[in-house]
């Protein structure tokens, strides 16, 4: 093998820098979308609360003060107190982290299972695809709530087990999106030409398929995050998720519901937080979908 | 049917500089594809040799098996196709016996391929430089930075102006011709000795075609490549190739030095192809054509496969399968009547 033919190259090697256009163009488009910007701001705020919650909480969220039960909003308790006299604002702030982490767990686990399965099934096709797809189809037939009840019955109650059940429920959505995108990308000629230049299947999956799959996946992950937040709230509300004295939005709703007639103000804080978070993730999903879509009316500027 | 044919040993069948100098040698290459008619032979006993520093043309109509032949050389046959007989050797590697994992180590290093539609061969989501560098990173384990620097040199090699800037652009910023240059840079990144060009200029503007062809020719000369040029454009073959193999219905029907084959074809199919070429010298004359189409693979006749469309077919002679036979040194024909019929070629 002869040495590579080299012609004189005077250019500054420093100018040859791999760039990250991909992120930058999408961010540029995202920035021009007001709803997306709003959602990002909201999510950043919620994220900050999740991180700082313990420190900015005015009081210990679990401190029981039976002398000041069910007190409406006041200077001492900005959002009032619940039936055990705990400060609602503090509980709300602390619950944010629990909810976001739980949501990340569920989505993360679903991604971890759904994406590799989807890519392998989509790329390999044939028997592999048929088998995996049938298993996933079977998963889709499970009613989410019943599944959660079963999981909790087997593994015991608790937020983590509830999230496990939820992640099983959302695996099919990731799997199907990844599989479809992979099938679309697989037949591209650039995959063939990558094979012709010696790329192994793994390298093609990593370098060509995964990037093609990533945009719809991100959108789906964002939507799923909001679904999981709702699911957490529902399951905790039903007593299948988080358990007292842990503070989560769902549990707070549960507490609030039992005192709805006497202390209706309790229902609003967790509801608003759940709504804002869902809105944030949904709008972000919409924004991402628009920003990463291939066809745009503005020429990608 | 094909088992009846005896084929002369490939060493005698080609004009390569010597047996050991061949970068590509297929011996009795037979490819089957799975269809609703069962396994059907689509490439039948192809003996092809490409020597170092030579351009071999592979011509024929659509459906004649040119592309399948080239894909099997790269080990890129689709899942529903298999090499059922014969061997493919590229620079000492028996491609036909390698596993997928081993094939991946050979592709790009010993043999590389460029395709018909250069723009669709580039991933729109990455810079062209990234994609060329990928081959270097994959095969040589180079760092991103080192690979990119070499990529700039490769771009200069394939005459892309302003290479240092262009490597950072995206495929959509390149014209078709420029994309094909990028593909060439990608193909040649790891110094393969065999380049397979599958209709490299068919999708390009006529004005750009010539530039790309001249580039291929220049690179071939400078790097001493063996090039297998697949095309249905005989004009391109006449200009580029040292030797030509004409394929029809999965078989090589004529093979020889380009000059000899063009001026004195000895298979009616070759002659008919030449007559259907547009040529300024034949202005005013009706353009030749070949009636009918290439039969689908499951209907390849057990006779001479071209018989049904041949103007020179004689029943009793052409009813048998015809073997490729040597007419003169390095000139082979699969016509039973070769030598007894006078076939027009192109005037020198």
Automatic annotation (TrEMBL), chain A:
UniProt-listed GO biological process terms: transmembrane transport
Compartments, record wording: Cell membrane
Name of protein: ABC transporter permease
Family under the similarity heading: Belongs to the binding-protein-dependent transport system permease family.
Topological category with respect to the lipid bilayer: Multi-pass membrane protein
Database matches in InterPro entries: BP-dependent_transpt_permease, MetI-like, MetI-like_sf, OppC_N
Keyword Glycosyltransferase belongs to the record: no
Residues of the ABC transmembrane type-1 domain: 96-285
Organism superkingdom: Bacteria
Pfam family, one: BPD_transp_1
Organism this protein belongs to: Nocardioides albidus
Annotated keywords: Cell membrane, Membrane, Transmembrane, Transmembrane helix, Transport
Spans traversing the lipid bilayer: 35-57, 100-123, 135-156, 162-178, 217-242, 262-284
The keyword Ligase belongs to this UniProt entry's keyword annotation: no
GO cellular component: plasma membrane
Signal peptide per UniProt: none
Automatic annotation (TrEMBL), chain B:
Superkingdom assignment: Bacteria
Matches recorded under CDD domains: ABC_NikE_OppD_transporters
Chief location: membrane
PROSITE patterns: ABC_TRANSPORTER_1, ABC_TRANSPORTER_2
Any one GO MF annotation of this record: ATP hydrolysis activity
SMART domains: AAA (SM00382)
Protein name: ABC transporter ATP-binding protein
